[in-house]
Specification:
alpha+beta; 3-stranded mixed beta sheet; globular
């Protein structure tokens, strides 16, 4: 399942692909982000979940009102999609106050992946 979502990233906007991280590349360079807000969201999620994969993109045209986030983390193992979403919402609660929406994809990952 994780591999399918990573392959699907190639069909996503360039801004989403450039913010992709993995266990071998946990911190993309600052130039990887189109906006400071993308970087802030990415950093908060990286710190909260130590994800195996993480992609953050401002899909609002640059105004910061809509984001697409894809995150795969062992923190999601054994819990429902609703619980996964709540964890992410809690981590981003301050940022989300000014958003109109978010496209969120969460994926559990095995510890050995």
């Amino acid at each position: 399942m994780l591999h399918r979502s990573v392959l699907a990233l190639s069909a996503r906007p360039a801004s989403l692909v450039r913010a992709l991280t993995s266990a071998t590349n946990p911190s993309p360079p600052a130039a990887a982000f189109a906006t400071d807000a993308e970087r802030i969201v990415y950093t908060k999620l990286q710190e909260a979940f130590q994800p195996r994969r993480l992609a953050v993109a401002d899909i609002s045209g640059g105004c910061g009102a809509m984001y697409q986030i894809e995150i795969a983390s062992s923190a999601f193992n054994g819990i429902s999609k609703v619980q996964q979403t709540r964890l992410v919402n809690r981590a981003l609660k301050d940022e989300m106050k000014s958003w109109h929406g978010v496209r969120l994809t969460t994926l559990p990952v095995a510890a050995d992946e």
